[in-house]
Design a protein that fits this description.
Radius of gyration: 21 Å
Number of domains: 2
Shape: elongated
CATH architecture of the largest domain: 3-Layer(aba) Sandwich
Strand order of the largest sheet: 1-6-5-2-3-4
CATH class of the largest domain: Alpha Beta
Largest sheet: 6 strands, mixed
CATH topology of the largest domain: Rossmann fold
Helix content: 25-40%
Strand content: 15-25%
Number of strands: 9
């Protein structure tokens, strides 16, 4: 925690920050996966966008008693995600490729393997950018839901006691109203990260006070730092 920029923000502004998971991940069951009519062995390569995707790909494979062939190729969005594969396979003996960090960066790598049939393990809530980029680059693929994003139980949280609520995903907005269906924003400030989160907040009827990233504030901590400073200077503060 001491290395987090949020810790520095707490120290600098003398504020209290609570970190609460509004969402949690649940793997689909073997029965649910069968309903998708996806045969893992029909694919010669897998695209991983997160460590969570890796965990649930191998979990489902094990539960369905599918032995992943040694010749399976693995394509990961970043090197750190690729290295995580060591948890399940002998890394140096497999065909593993990775991009720089973003999904779009992986396109150059995938372009060199267009003969492969790719499986893309995703959550029930995922970026449509994935399909759009793969289709645009004429990559043969199929997405399959291996895990779901669900609302966490926030029954013990006193939501009205906070001055600012910060959301990083549309799922967080959904969880807010799932846990607190009668939630009224009143004087609570809302901060959102990313256009999709901002859109979800607006559609839920929330007034957004901070939208990040922006040319002025590329990070949430920078935006909050500036916001807190301005609020402190207001009369009566």
């Amino acid at each position: 925690m001491e290395k987090s920029p949020y810790f520095d923000l707490e120290e600098k502004q003398k504020v209290k920050l609570d970190f609460t998971q509004f969402i949690q991940i649940e793997g689909v069951t073997k029965k649910e996966f069968r309903c998708e009519k996806v045969n893992i062995l029909d694919f010669s390569a897998v695209i991983f966008t997160s460590r969570t995707a890796i965990d649930h790909f191998f979990r489902i494979s094990e539960e369905m008693r599918v032995t992943i062939p040694d010749g399976m190729k693995y394509f990961c969005v970043s090197e750190s995600i690729a290295v995580y594969l060591q948890k399940y396979i002998i890394y140096r003996k497999r065909k593993i490729f990775y991009g720089k960090k973003r999904f779009v960066d992986l396109m150059d790598v995938l372009g060199k393997h267009k003969d492969e049939n790719f499986l893309v393990p995703v959550s029930d809530v995922h970026k449509e950018e994935i399909s759009a980029l793969l289709e645009k680059n004429q990559v043969k693929f199929k997405k399959a839901v291996f895990y779901c994003t669900v609302a966490a139980d926030l029954s013990g949280l006193k939501i009205d006691e906070y001055d600012v609520l910060v959301f990083y995903s549309p799922s967080g907005i959904s969880s807010l109203f799932s846990n607190f269906p009668d939630f009224k924003q009143n004087s609570i400030k809302i901060a959102t990260f990313g256009p999709n989160t901002a859109k979800a907040a607006e559609e839920a009827g929330l007034n957004i006070d901070l939208t990040v990233p922006s040319p002025e504030f590329p990070s949430m901590t920078m935006a909050l730092d500036n916001f807190i400073t301005k609020e402190a200077k207001k009369p009566g503060k």
